[in-house]
Design a protein that fits this description.
Rossmann fold; ODC_Mu_crystall (chains A, B); NAD(P)-bd_dom_sf (chains A, B); alpha/beta; 18 strands; eight-stranded parallel beta sheet; ornithine cyclodeaminase, domain 1; ODC_N (chains A, B); 2 domains; homodimer; 30% helix; 10 helices
Chain lengths: 363, 363
C-alpha cells in the first residue's frame, strides 16, 4: 500500500516562521488561542499518559525532555535552562519539540518552541490566575523582568484584564528592556526599588526570576490578603523563589504533583505537603480560593501537557495557513521492509572485487 | 558578547544526506567507524549519566526517548516500533536524534537516525560478538530477515569475518529481499525452512524478529556448544525471542541492566537473575566466554549510549566533509534577554488603538 503523501515527513516550523505567525495573528490572539487549548486539554487530564520530565543536570544548567501522549498524539519538548548563557549571547532557555502520530509513530511536526514556550507559559499562568485570582484583579507585581516577563505581562493584560504592572528586577537593565517593550501596550507601568515595594497593592504577584539557587524572593510578611501568587521561576531542583511560610499558610495549586514535588517551590516541603492539581479546580472537582481574603499560590514549573497543547495549536494553525515546509528526516522507502534498498550500489563497494555468492537451498 | 556563528543553529542531516554519506564512505567503513566509537564510549561507561529509555505504549506500538550525557555532550534519540506500519507502506522503526552541548544546552546536530540506528545496532552486535563469540566463527544463522537483518549480515561479514549465512524468516518474501540485497556481498547464503534448520552448524545465531509478542524463536534444544546468541529482536516489554532455558543455562550479557530487565529477553526471569554488562567484559573487569564449549547470550535491546556514539560520529564526519545544512530552530536574538524583541511591531497591534503607558517611578 502506498503511504499518504508526507506520511513520515514532518512539517517544520522554524523560529522565524513561528515569529512571523505570531506577528500575523497578533500576540493577543495567539495567547487567547493557546489558553483555550490549554483549558480544553487540562479538562481531559485523565486521558493523558503522563510522566515527570527527564532532566540531565550539569554544573552549567539542565537539559530536559518532556514527553506526553493521549490516544491520538504523542509530543515531547527539548528544553534547556542555562542562566550563564546570556553572558555568551545565548538565550537562557532554548526549546524545540515534536508532535507525532500514536498509531504509526511517525513525526508530524518539528517546531521551534523557544518563543512558543514563553507564550504557553504565560498563557498557562493566565489560565491559573483566571481560575484562582480575584476576578476584579487589575494590578500585578512582576518580579524578575527577564525574557519571560514580557509575555507574562501581555498574557495577564489580554486574558485577565490587568491594567497596571509594578516592576522589579535586581538588574535595572532588565526592567528597562521590559518598559521599552511594553511602551505601546497601554499598561500602566511602575518601576519599583524592591520586591517588597512592588508587591504592595498588587492583586497578583508574578515571580519569574532565573537564578538557579535556593532564593527567597517572596516571604509571607510581604503579602496582603486576597493576593494571588503566580510563582513561575522556581522550576528546578535547588531553584526556588518562595519562603516556606508563603507555602505553609496558603492553599497551593500545582500542574502535575509528582513533577512539582521535585522541581517546584514545594520541593522545600515534606513529601505529603497538601497541594491541589489545577485541573481539579478547572473540572469543578476541588475548590479554588475560599474567599476574597485567601492568598492563593500557583507553584508553576511547566508541564509537558502545555507543550502538547501548544504543538497541536501550532500544527493546526500551520496546516490551515499553509505555513512551514516538509523535512526529509525519515527515509522514504519503496518497500518499508527493505531499508538497505535505499542505498545505492556504491555503498557496497569494497577494496576486493565482489565474489558471486553461492546461493543454495539447504538439503 | 557575540555568540560564535551557528551557536544555536543545529546542523541538519536529512535521511538522503546520511544515505549519501554512507554511499560515499562505503557501508563497511561506516560500520567499522561506528564500532570503533562504540568501543571507545563503552570503555568510559562510568563517565555517562544514564537512564532507561522513556517509553509511551499504545495498542499499535511504542514511541521512546533515549537520553544520555557525558560532561561535554548530551544526546537523545526518538524512535518508534510499530510492527503494523509496513501494511501502510511505513517503516516499523523510524528514528531521529539530537546532539547538544552540555555547557549551553544548545542543539549541535539534528539527524535522521533510521538508517543510522540500523547501522549502529549491527555494529553493536558485532562488537559484542567480537568480545563473546569464538574467534574462528565463520557461519551465522540469521533468524528474521526484515529491515535490520541486512545490516547485521554486513556488520558480521566486515567486522567479524563471517563468510556464510543460514537464513530463515516466517515470510519467504523477507528472505528473498535479503538474498537479493546480499547478492554481490561475497557471503555464502543458505535459505532454510525453519529456525531449527538454520541454527544447525552456525557459530553465531542472530535473532532479529519484529513481532510484538512473547515468542519463542529459539529454545535450548536447538543450540550447540560454543555458539554465540545475538538476540536483537526481544527489546520491549511483552516482546521476547528466547525460551527461558536458553537464558537459564548460559551466561547472559547485556548493555544496561536496569533497561534490559524491563525490555530484554531477561524480562522473563526473576529480578535478581545474574547478568554481566558488556562494558565490564570490554574493560577486562568481568570474564566473557569460559571456553570453546560455552554458549554465550547477548540480550541486546539497544542503549542510548550507542546513539550518542553514532551522533558524535555523524557530527564529526559531517563537519569534516561539509555535509548538511544549518536549521533556524532557535531564535537568533540581538539581546538574549529580550526574546519578545524578535517580534515585529505588528505582533502587538490590537483592535483598540494603543494607549500611551503612564510610566512613573514609585514614590
Amino acid at each position: 500500500m502506498t503511504p499518504p503523501p508526507h506520511a513520515a515527513s514532518p512539517l517544520y516550523l522554524s523560529a522565524p516562521t513561528v515569529a512571523q505567525w505570531i506577528e500575523q495573528q497578533g500576540i493577543a490572539t495567539c495567547l487567547r488561542g493557546l489558553c483555550e487549548r490549554l483549558q480544553l486539554d487540562y479538562l481531559r487530564w485523565n486521558e493523558f499518559d503522563k510522566c515527570a520530565r527527564v532532566p540531565s543536570h550539569s554544573p552549567w544548567g539542565v537539559i530536559e525532555l518532556m514527553p506526553i501522549a493521549d490516544a491520538q498524539h504523542y509530543s515531547f519538548k527539548y528544553v534547556n535552562g542555562h542562566p550563564g548563557n546570556t553572558l555568551q549571547g545565548l538565550s537562557t532557555v532554548m526549546a524545540f519539540g515534536v508532535l507525532a502520530d500514536m498509531a504509526t509513530g511517525a513525526p508530524l511536526l518539528l517546531s521551534e518552541l523557544t518563543l512558543t514556550t514563553a507564550l504557553r507559559t504565560a498563557a498557562m499562568s493566565a489560565l491559573a490566575a483566571r481560575t484562582l485570582a480575584r476576578p476584579e484583579s487589575r494590578v500585578m507585581a512582576l518580579i524578575g523582568n527577564g525574557a519571560q516577563s514580557d509575555f507574562q505581562a501581555l498574557a495577564f493584560q489580554h486574558l485577565l484584564g490587568i491594567q497596571a504592572l509594578r516592576l522589579y528586577d535586581t538588574d535595572p537593565a532588565a526592567t528597562c528592556k521590559l518598559v521599552h517593550n511594553l511602551r505601546h501596550s497601554g499598561l500602566e507601568l511602575t518601576v519599583c526599588q524592591s520586591t517588597r515595594e512592588a508587591v504592595q497593592g498588587a492583586d497578583i504577584v508574578t515571580t519569574v526570576t532565573a537564578d538557579k539557587c535556593q532564593a527567597t524572593i517572596l516571604s509571607a510578611d510581604m503579602l496582603s490578603p486576597g493576593q494571588h501568587i503566580n510563582a513561575v521561576g522556581g522550576d528546578c531542583p535547588g531553584k526556588t523563589e518562595l519562603a516556606a511560610d508563603v507555602l505553609l499558610n496558603n492553599p497551593v495549586f500545582v500542574e502535575y504533583t509528582p513533577q512539582t514535588r521535585v522541581e517546584g517551590d514545594i520541593q522545600q516541603m515534606p513529601a505529603d505537603f497538601p497541594v491541589t492539581e489545577l485541573w481539579q479546580v478547572l473540572a469543578g472537582q476541588a475548590p479554588g480560593r475560599c474567599d476574597a481574603q485567601t492568598i492563593t499560590v500557583f507553584d508553576s514549573v511547566g508541564f509537558a501537557l502545555e507543550d502538547f497543547s501548544a504543538l497541536r495549536y501550532l500544527y493546526d494553525s500551520a496546516l490551515a495557513l499553509g505555513l512551514g515546509e516538509r523535512l526529509d528526516l525519515i527515509p522514504a522507502l519503496n518497500d518499508p521492509k527493505n531499508l538497505l534498498g535505499c542505498l545505492g550500489a556504491q555503498a557496497f563497494a569494497t577494496t576486493q572485487p565482489p565474489v558471486q555468492p553461492a546461493l543454495r537451498r539447504a538439503a
